[in-house]
Amino acid sequence: MASGTVTVNPSATATITASSASVCQGESITLTASGGNSYIWSTGETTAIISVTATAAYSVTAISAQGCTGVDSTTITINQAPQLTINSVTVCAGNTTALTVGGCIGGSLAWDTGDTTASLTIAPLVTTAYSATCTLPTGCTSSVSTTVTVNEAPTYTMAPVVIPATCLGAVVNNDAHIDLTSIQNTERVDISAGSTYTGPAYGAGSNKPVSGGVVSFINLPNPSGPQAYTIRLYTAGGSCFSDVTVLLNSADCQCSIKCAPIVITKIR
Fold first, then answer.
1. Dihedrals φ, ψ of 238, to 5°?
2. Residues 227-261 pLDDT 10s
3. Which of 45, 131, 231, 237 could link 41 by a cystine bridge, Cβ 3.0 to 4.6 Å?
4. Do 56 and 76 meet the contact criterion of CB atoms below 8 Å apart?
5. How far apart are CA 222 and CA 88, in angstroms?
6. Position 46 pLDDT exceeds 80
7. Last residue within a domain, chosen from 44, 59, 79
8. Helix, strand, coil shares, percent, the chain, to 5
């Protein structure tokens, strides 16, 4: 009877070690296989170490020097980063506007201003960049930014001069006037009675052109009491405006001496 020896080699013990079980979109996870002399991954790669960037189950077959095999597998999760949106705004200097970030669903938002609400109310005086970062519970973050363009508003450096009506004895003339002499970045102006502007819009026929930073409103009626006027200053094209409110006082016209009627008699 013939006899022989059968050698039974142990199967390879494949092991996958992941650098992390989950990462954020745009990052990768390193998978390292051990327990064999050579390896074949489910991705087709044959190196001991591979890098993956997609959520999936990954397996590796480890092959020993004797040709025995072993298999191991692991599941990797790639968490999505928030997809953020933000509006862009053009505003006149000093005016209030709002920036709103969308897409931070279930996450926490932080603006570079320190605010944490989705909508940010601002009133910039110069063109300014703003950014916000959203952090999801997974730890994944995304940032978005925008630039708010600020157009210069009309300005003036000297207070308007308000001159009450003149008098002719006890008779008041309707010639009060308001003079502005230091207007800047202003193409046209207009006026309305009251402390809030309710007058014509930019381009109306009543708009007064500004020349050399000077404009006057003349022949204003003498009010019975203090009368507010609001003057609106428009930039070129009317995209921005500033309002100036002044107070015109009533003229107090009295004779310097006792007034008496004068009788003129014609002598033949």
1. 75, 15
2. 999 999 999 999 999 999 999 999 989 876 655 55
3. 45
4. yes
5. 48
6. yes
7. 79
8. 0, 45, 50
Please, are residues 232 and 197 in contact by the beta-carbon 8 Å criterion?
A: yes
The pTM for the full model equals 0.70
Residues present in the chain in total: 268
Strand partners, 90: 149
Boundary-marking domain end, from 79, 95, 120 = 79
C-alpha closest to that of 122 among 84, 85, 89, 86? 89
**Residue 10, in any domain of the structure:** no
Question: What pLDDT does 79 receive?
Answer: 95
Residues 164 and 211 in one domain: yes
- Indicate if the pLDDT at residue 27 is higher than 80: yes
Query: Any residues with CB less than 8 A from the CB of 253 and at least 6 apart, and which?
Result: 167, 168, 169, 170, 171, 172
Assigned token pair, 166: 């003149």
